[in-house]
């Protein structure tokens, strides 16, 4: 399979690694949104949240928690965004599941966490909730 993140995990493509365990690999994003932008990936290839196993999802989140604390301290961030994109419509470019850990500072100018707040139609919100619940 021609997957760039699998190649990084296997050491066939260089990366700036910050963490590795049996199931998870983490490395610095080469196009950082800001200082300390880090990617966390499962070692077993899974394209997205729909494909990853429950156990690997747990392992990835375990690593994300540990790394978030280390990154926040390491770069003395005021906060952290955790972002994970699924599918082209959601902006996913690399089809190997990855969690972005993005350090944040007050007034850092990064806009990913700001969307216009507009009160929703409660009837519509409840109708959508029912559509979700029947799929569980
Ligand atoms: P996305 O699929 O949109 O969630 O983002 C893919 C991310 O992978 C981008 O932030 C890229 O900068 C990053 N990226 C792509 N190739 C590499 C690489 N070889 N090393 C590190 N980061 C990469
Ligand atoms: Zn892969």
Description:
With 136 residues, the chain is of the alpha+beta class. The chain has one domain: HIT family, subunit A. The chain is built from 3 helices and 5 strands, in the order αβββαββα. It has helices at 4-9, 54-74, 122-133; strands at 17-20, 24-28, 38-42, 79-83, 99-104. The chain has a 5-stranded antiparallel sheet, covered by helices on one side. The longest helix has 21 residues, at 54-74. The protein is globular and about 50 Å long. It starts with a helix and ends with a helix. The mean pLDDT is 97. The site of adenosine monophosphate has 14 residues, from loops. Residues 3, 5-6, 45, 96 line the site of zinc ion.
List the helices and strands and how they pair.
Layout: H1 4-9, E1 17-20, E2 24-28, E3 38-42, H2 54-74, E4 79-83, E5 99-104, H3 122-133
Antiparallel strand pairs: 1-2, 2-3, 3-5, 4-5
The structure holds adenosine monophosphate and zinc ion.
Largest sheet, in brief, is: 5 strands, antiparallel
Proportion of residues in helical segments? 25-40%
Low-confidence stretches: none
- Roughly how many Å apart are the termini? 32 Å
Summary, kept brief:
By secondary structure, this protein is of the alpha+beta class.
Task: Please tag this protein with its features.
single chain, 136 residues, HIT family, subunit A, binds zinc ion
